[in-house]
Amino acid sequence: MRRVVVTGLGVLSCIGKDVPTFWNSLVNGVCGIDYITDFPTDALPVKIAGTIKSDFNPEDYGMDKPFIRKQDPFTIFAMASAVQAMADSGLESGTNIEPSRLATYVSSGIGGFTTIQREIIKMHEDPSGQWISPNFVPTMIANIAGGQIAIRFNAQGSCIDIATACASSTHSLGEAYRAIRYGFADAVIAGGTDRTCIPIGVAAFANARALTRAENPKYASLPFNANRSGFVMADGSAVLILEEYEHAKARGAHIYAEMVGYGSTCDAYHATAPRPDASTQSACIRLTLEEAGFDVSKDKVYINAHGTGTLLNDVTETLAYKIAFGDFARKCHISSTKSMHGHMFGATGAAEAIATVLALGHDTVPPTINLDAPDPECDLDYTPNTAVETELTLGLSDSFGFGGHNACIAFRKI
User: Fold this and answer.
1) Would you list the domain boundaries of the chain?
2) Does the model's pTM come out above 0.85?
3) Of these residues, 171, 247, 306, 333, which one is catalytic?
4) Which residues contact residue 66 at a Cβ distance below 8 angstroms, ignoring those fewer than 6 apart?
5) In this structure, which topology does domain 260-412 adopt according to CATH?
6) Which of 25, 41, 71, 231 would be 343's cystine partner, CB 3.0–4.6 Å?
7) Which residue of the set 166, 197, 284, 378 is catalytic?
8) CATH class for domain 4-250?
9) 343 part of the active site
10) Contact 113, 193 (CB under 8 A)
11) DSSP state of 53
């Protein structure tokens, strides 16, 4: 069976528009959640989010004005991360990898939300539809970010763009891992993207009672905290380059970590609530641990938790860890970086995978900030408030999405 390694990273988030800034923010507990300024929020029930800062310029990532003008923000965000990751990896289609052996798995939980909102408003104002953009469909479809990235980098292998809500990019990474492991690709541009912090997105998630109504943006995303009241929306993207080990070694690539496990299950229980006995979530984690060769006597584990800060998720996730790991759960170092960058929907799994890879590389556990009142039912080591330097050998990142989608991936130092 072929080995799979990480050779490139790229991220765009409210705590950094490049990987070094993102990591520096994580280890220093920087919160990127703030008041929404992109549109009026006076009439909306929620006024905070983790939005991309106004100094983000797509041209800095090699995108020209015609491309920028025609694309939905979720595609622009994805391209920014892909450009970073490909440059970091040194891969170049047709030079050091065959175009047919380079694949693209870039997910979105929703797709072109901004475009959908804009065009529906037009249709409402003029039911004839004469002002609907001819580019509406190829701009809003959820697979177009992956398609545009494949075009940009001449990636002629599979382009498979998974939509499993908040688990989308974790599933993309897992399926990309399998594609390389079983010989269907030599490298994959894998990750996720979403831009949901728009008026209809805020209204929809707020009315579903999923979002916190906290007024202080710096004390709003509170995973595993007894004061938590819902998640905080965030925008962004993240991309990792996964590559077959011998291929990467032969070209002298920098290797961040080895991907060693992937698990996927479905709650088959409820559209939005997790299965309360955590049986399916823990099974997902166990599958990952088995493939990763988890050794209770040797491994020192970091888990980047899904940790949304919702009442149901955090308790159920804690239970899942206890079932999957047994007594070892209390030895795991765990944190939810959503406390700093918010919930990035289709991008969140890939962003948290990057955090996991970097935690392994730096032997540093990023904190769960604002964890000043731990929920008694969330009684594992969730790394409150301050980063911890410690030896790590195995890193896990898990994601759970609406629809009962569960995904977990694992990395080791190489």
Assistant:
1) 4-250, 260-412
2) yes
3) 306
4) none
5) Peroxisomal Thiolase; Chain A, domain 1 (3.40.47)
6) 231
7) 166
8) alpha beta
9) yes
10) no
11) P
